[in-house]
Amino acid sequence: MMTRRQVLASFAVACAARAAQDQETVFRVDVRLVRILATVKTNSGELVGNLQKEDFSIFDNGVPQEIAVFEHHTEQPLSIAILIDTSSSTGIELRYEVQSVTRFLRALFASGNPQDAVELYSFDADTTLLVPFTRRLDRLERELKGLKGSGGTSLYDAVCFAAESLQQREGRHVLVVITDGGDTTSAKTFHQALEAAQMADAVIYPILVMPITNDPGRNIGGENALTLMAQNTGGRVFAPSLGPALDQAFTEILRDLRTQYLIGYYPKDVPPSKDRFHRIQIKVNRPDLRVLARSGYYETSEENRGWKPVREE
What we know:
Layout (H helix, E strand, L loop, with lengths): L3 H18 L3 E4 L5 E9 L13 E5 L2 E3 L1 E6 L5 E8 L7 H18 L6 E7 L3 E8 L2 H9 L9 H12 L5 E8 L10 H10 L2 E7 L11 H14 L10 H14 L3 E5 L11 E8 L4 E4 L3 E3 L2 H6 L1 E4 L2
Parallel strand pairs: 6-7, 6-9, 9-10
Antiparallel strand pairs: 1-15, 2-11, 2-13, 3-4, 3-12, 5-11, 7-8, 12-14
């Protein structure tokens, strides 16, 4: 049997617990590590690869976060999906594109992580996986030489297919899209393609090869869509002419990939977004520098179920 003192002590504990429950509600959740690939440049466009963890600040929906993972010049393996537009409008430039992609692959495999791998897609009205992830340059070159143009342009479908494949891979995820314009035949929409890339933590580098440079012959809407994809995933868009300028675009992409920072954090005290999308802001402590990184991430269904208000003592 409990003594009078024990009864009073139990009552006091119960009162304290009730008081704790009446305090202000805060949001907490255990979620996956959010990984961000960031490229830092000066205002003149020069790459900056010598910053430290203390130089960065990160915000999730405006809430400051603690950086849990930081690597500069990260050596995590690259998984690169290369998507080549083979629609009927590509014409003669397809041959030059194949030559530049081949040189890019040779440079990629000649240095970097020995686990770097590439998969190759072509897309017209349909999307075709030509080569799954591999380091076999001979197999990639053989498929590249066999490409021919035909049909419409299902760009958004191709991005969705490739993003789903990338999502299963470890390390860094990159999409290189080589095209001459916008989408004409996809079942997927621009927003679905962008969400798929965000869910895969993929950086998109569109290369717009435009033999027609005057406005009446260009797909301005398609170009703007690809620019938004690049901006929202931390990549950048290129619009080279054929020949040396196309080679230079691939050289700059490779340089970016070799100078990336990997930044990771576990979201803390951030309430869920109504649209499932969390907006990320990364800042550096130098006003002369700018950061290229994805604009945010989508909560998974598991994370949505995990969000719940808890009482903080």
